[in-house]
Fold this protein.
Amino acid sequence: MTRFARYPELDALDLASQACLDAFADGGVGIHDMDVLAAGSLFQPQGFGQRLQKQIGQTGIPVYNVTNACATGATAIRVAYLSIRAGEAQIGLAVGVEQMGKMGLLAGKSRSERKVFEPTGRYEAVTSIDGILGTETMPGVFAQAGTGYAYENEGVGFEQFARVAYKNHLHSTLNPLAQYQKEFSLEQIMGSPVQSYPNTTLMCCPTGDGAAAVVLVSGERLRSMPAEAQQRAVKISASVLTSDPWVESGQVQPDVNTLTRSAAAQAYEAAGVGPEDLDLVELHDCFATAELIHYDNLGLCEPGGAGDFIDSGAPFRDGRLPVNVSGGLISKGHPIGATGVANVYEISTHLRGEAGDRQIEGARVGLAHVIGLGSACGIHILEKAAA
Amino acid sequence: MSDETPARQVPIVGYLELGDDPHLCASECTDCGARYFDRRNACANCGGTGFSQVRVAGAGVLKAYSVVHNAAPGIPVPFVSAIVETEDGTSVRSNVVGLDDPMAAELGMRVELTTYVCGTDDDGTECVAYGYASA
């Protein structure tokens, strides 16, 4: 993967090409070995995968252009995975990329007063409702997801959310691929400008640029590869994608919980492991409020115990179950299409024992989670190869 | 004289009923009771296609909120974005209005539906929005 950063001098093809070529070099393979390509990006114009082929190799293989909100990267991996599972491919490439620059808030429309109030759309709204009937901004929507959890459960407040951001900024200081690599004190985090309370600026992920790619291979094909490749290969024990099932409150506030809980249950079942078996987790901390509630959604803590979990230090890199040792979206960055691939890259790097200063020693099982509003949740459980 | 004629008023969304007793009106699935505020093709819970119009309770509690300080250009900040659960168990999105200090919003606070004029168009028509005030 590329470092997540801002690359005004490059375009998305440069970033994606670099990630793909790095993945090929890492796996000892090339574009002519690939049977399928899945290319994920939220903001690139259609046909990105084909344009990427025109840079890294036009071999006539099927290309799937993938868009699935913030789960785009995980969905691209799953498309290549499914091709292999279906027997149509033996080896495939999944890449996720985004070049966002300084996009700022990604939702919420400016309200220029309409000349005439006329009902439009399925709600027959006569003007933009953002800011009048609640918020459509991401920091606000995820703030509400966090305060909704605080309403239902004890021991969760501003300080617990801030502590999540403290942890992830701290973790990022060990990750040379992170967009930001700077530690902040809890006071600095709580005192930084409020975006949407309880999310302050230092509790929100930045926009940015970057790409990540993975090569997926069938067990059969892997056995024909060199011993070193077999030893460094990581097993995909579960690959799960869910959408949001109907819940009453989901009509007015995106429900990021139910589909994550469902995906986690399916992933643990498929992998034959439980949360207690995990050595590290990369989860979707687009905002500090989001990370906290996913402790509970992924079963990392006791039900209702996400506040205690962060207060106990469990998800810190020296704690019981390290979460987001990469720095997470909050500090590593969140170039949207790349995020779900980068999380898998991070887990794989630890399982191989190649994570350098940030290595979680002896890591054997890890979980990568992303969620996109709308909604889509992708979970991959990865295990160190037995070889 | 003309300024004594009440301005024409329209609701900000179709599910807000104005008049002497303003309230929200939901489409309720006749099979499973799921409620919706948008135009429906079918029920997302049970797949049923029959709906009746029902009045939503005005009183409720604040079950999630955010004090929004950064929004798109033209939107006044800060404001208190809210998810309210009404007494009849319906989730509604809106703002908490009428607080002197937005940070006075509290989870679990009792609120009541209220309406106010939020804008006027070039024809002089007023847009009426709904919000929730501390009860």
